[in-house]
Every structure is written in structure tokens, then in C-alpha cells.
Amino acid sequence: MRYTSKMLLAFLAFLGIFNPIYLGLYAAFSCTVLANVYFRRRAVSKTEQLHIQLMPRFIGTGARLRKTSIEKGKAKVKLSSVFPSKKMVAGFAAVAVVALLAGVVIGATLVQYRFNGSGRIVIPPSLGVYSDQACTVEVSAIDFGSFAPGENVTRTLFVRNEGSEPGVLSLATQNWNPTTAKEYLVFSWNLEGAEIEGDAVFESQFNIRALSTLTNNSGISNFSFDALISLTIDSEAS
């Protein structure tokens, strides 16, 4: 138990470097450990005093010692006055565990922040982007909603070749707002370089990934950009 307490104190002290909440938990748990040490030392001191007071007496001339039990006769004492009760120890342990779990939850909430973003779809007349495979609902933007650093967000849409000639699909991004967003966000799709026949419909996954290096110090709370989808007509096939 002694080593466990030391390890936990060292762990909380290390986390306190990154989050001040853990410094409070470190202080609280330190008080718990110190209280436990105090009660233990007090118990040892009380026990020693009792042994001195109840020192066995000599019986007869044989100088034989008779051990007197602490739990019998007039020497009987309440252990609650010497040792901390089990409820007290359990209470200290419960407070420490709850405080640690609360610190983990609150600390994770404070350290990690969330942001929102969207991408405007820019396409030529020869292409169409829809939310359904039947191509009845056109889509002009991709809403990525709210996410955090280190997370991936994927949106599924359908791309149709509105013409009769086959071509090769490609995508590029521009007009990032703020401009620093492109340094922390990686946008991609699964149809880069794919050849699509005339009037064909492809299912596409548009994915955006936020790098773990993105922090709240970057100043990015919302972002937007343009996703330019192009269709290069295959002259040999036509």
C-alpha cells in the first residue's frame, strides 16, 4: 500500500505539469496519505503506552511473567480510540478515487477542445454531387460538424458524370479560412484518379482529419474551404 500511494502521488504530480486540476488532486491525496500515516503512528504510540501500563507483574518468587491481555478485564480498551475505523479508511479511499476520476474527466475536457467546419463543393457542369444514390438531392457543401484534434470525420456522397463521355476525377482544395487551417487539417476522398463513364454514379467518401498537433492556441474554432472536383475527359476513350 505504501508503494502504491507513492506511485499514485508521483503520477498526479506528473499530470499536474500539464493540468492544474491534478495539482489539487495531488494535494488532496497527499493530505489523505498524511492522515493515514498520522493515525498509524498514533496507534503505535497508544499501543506502546498500553503495553507499558499493563506491564505484567511478577508472581511469587519465581520471577515469572504473566502476560495481560489488552482485550480482557480492566485493561480492555476500544480499538476505535487507537486505530482509524474501517469506515474512515474506506471514506478516504473513496474520496481519493472519486477525485482522481473527476480530475481525469475534467482534465480531458479542458485539454481537448472541439471546432466546426465545412467545405463548399465546386464542380463543373459535367459533374453532379448528390446526397442519395438515386441522385435526386444535390449537395453544394459538406458539413463536417464538430470534432476534435486527432479525430477523423467522413461524409458519404454520390458523384455522377452528367455527360456521355468518360473522364478521370480529381480534387483540389483552396480558399482555406483561416489560412492556417490547412496546416492542421488533411482533406481527402476515395475517387482521386478514378475513371468514371458517362452517366455513371460513384459513391464517394469525403474525409477530413485533424492533426493531433492542433491545439486551442492555434486560434481555429471554425473553418471553411472550397473543394474543387474536376473531370478530365479521356480523349482516347472518346
Note down, in words, how this protein is organized.
The chain has 238 residues and is an alpha+beta fold. It has two domains: 2-111; 115-233, Ctag/Cox11 (Pfam 04442). Helix content is 31%, strand content 31%. It has helices at residues 2-15, 20-53, 86-111, and strands at 58-59, 64-65, 115-122, 127-130, 141-147, 152-161, 167-177, 185-189, 195-196, 201-210, 222-233. It has a five-stranded mixed β-sheet, with no helix packed on it. A hairpin with a 4-residue loop joins strand 1 (58-59) and strand 2. Helix 1 (2-15) runs antiparallel to helix 2 and helix 2 (20-53) runs antiparallel to helix 3.
Question: Topology as H/E string?
Answer: HHEEHEEEEEEEEE
pLDDT under 50 segments (min length 5)?
57-83
Distance between the termini: 79 Å
Percent strand equals: 25-35%
Shape: rod-shaped
The total strand number stands at 11
Query: How many domains would you count in the coordinates?
Result: 2
List the topology elements.
Elements (H helix, E strand, L loop, with lengths): L1 H14 L4 H34 L4 E2 L4 E2 L20 H26 L3 E8 L4 E4 L10 E7 L4 E10 L5 E11 L7 E5 L5 E2 L4 E10 L11 E12 L5
Parallel strand pairs: 3-11
Antiparallel strand pairs: 1-2, 3-5, 4-6, 6-10, 7-9, 7-11, 8-10
Helix pairs in contact: 1-2, 2-3
What is this structure, in a nutshell?
This protein has 238 residues and is of the alpha+beta class. The protein is built from 3 helices and 11 strands; from the N terminus they run H-H-E-E-H-E-E-E-E-E-E-E-E-E.
Characteristic terms for this protein:
2 domains, alpha+beta, 238 residues, 3 helices, single chain, Ctag/Cox11 (Pfam 04442)
